[in-house]
Structures are given as structure tokens and as C-alpha cells.
Amino acid sequence: SSSPSHPAHQRSIAAAMVRSVQIAVLLVTCAAVGAKLASAPLHPVCHSITCADIQCLPPLELRRLDGQCCSICWAEDHVVGLDRHSALGGNNPYLRDPHPAAPSSCSGSMCFQPHCAEGYTPGHVQGRCCETCVPGR
């Protein structure tokens, strides 16, 4: 066995100290996330729900608001670009009006010409705003 002054023994002690610091940092991080998530009490209907164990990639952050059962990955609009399809208005050859049988709540929807796989044709599905691919007739 090695003595306390032996280089191998000193490396072993240094490695153990590094692992201890890593574990401490991990525990503090977990406690901080847990405290953040525990800050808003769960609504009674949430107690029977099992939420997914999710990890968020930056710039998204784990967030649960009052009234939400489960946490989500979230970032403000100024952090993550939000595509509102504003550039798609005007003369777009693929843009289509909502289907004539679409619900009245579809007013203002942006629909596009569907390109269907073999055996499917453009058609309407009740409750949808736009034409979609349905089994061929």
C-alpha cells in the first residue's frame, strides 16, 4: 500500500476531493431546481398525473406556472425567434383558403396545398380548417 506522501496516494485523494466537489455542486443545483419547481403548489387535479422527466436545452429553461400540472421548456419570444408566418402572406402559390366545410373558428387560418402520397388525395376531415390528405376514393 502507498504512504500518505506517495504520489499515487496524493492523486487518489485529489480525485476523491474533485468527486466530492462535483457531487456537492450537483446536489446544490438539484436543490435549487427542486425549490423553483416546488414554489407553486400543485392544483389538486395534478396529483394523479405523472409528468415527464424533461431536460431543456439552452436557451430554453424548465418552467412551471401556477395552474400548470407539469413543467415545460420555455423561453421568452425575444430569446427564441417566434415564427408567425408573417412573410407568407400575399402572392404565395401554395397558400389556400380554409376548406368551405371548415368551422367558423378557422377564419384567418393559413392553409397550404397538400402534397399527398400515393393512395391519398386532398380532402377534408370534419373539424379541421384546411384540406389534408385522406385515403383515395
Structure description:
The chain has 137 residues and is an alpha+beta fold. The longest helix is centred in the N-terminal third of the chain and has 32 residues, at 7-38. A hairpin with an 8-residue loop joins strand 5 (120-123) and strand 6 (132-135). It has one helix at residues 7-38, and strands spanning 61-63, 72-74, 95-96, 111-112, 120-123, 132-135. The chain contains 1 helix and 6 strands; from the N terminus they run αββββββ. The strands form 3 sheets. The protein has a two-stranded antiparallel sheet. Strands 3-4 form a two-stranded antiparallel sheet.
Rg over alpha carbons: 27 Å
Helix-strand pattern: HEEEEEE
Calculate the mean pLDDT score and round it: 79
Distance between the termini: 82 Å
- Total DSSP E strands: 6
Count of helix runs: 1
Main β-sheet description: 2 strands, antiparallel
> In terms of structural class, how would the helical and strand content be classed?
alpha+beta
Please outline what is shown here.
With 137 residues, the protein is of the alpha+beta class. It is built from 1 helix and 6 strands, in the order H-E-E-E-E-E-E. The N and C termini lie far apart (82 Å).
What layout of secondary structure does this protein have?
Layout: H1 7-38, E1 61-63, E2 72-74, E3 95-96, E4 111-112, E5 120-123, E6 132-135
Antiparallel strand pairs: 1-2, 3-4, 5-6
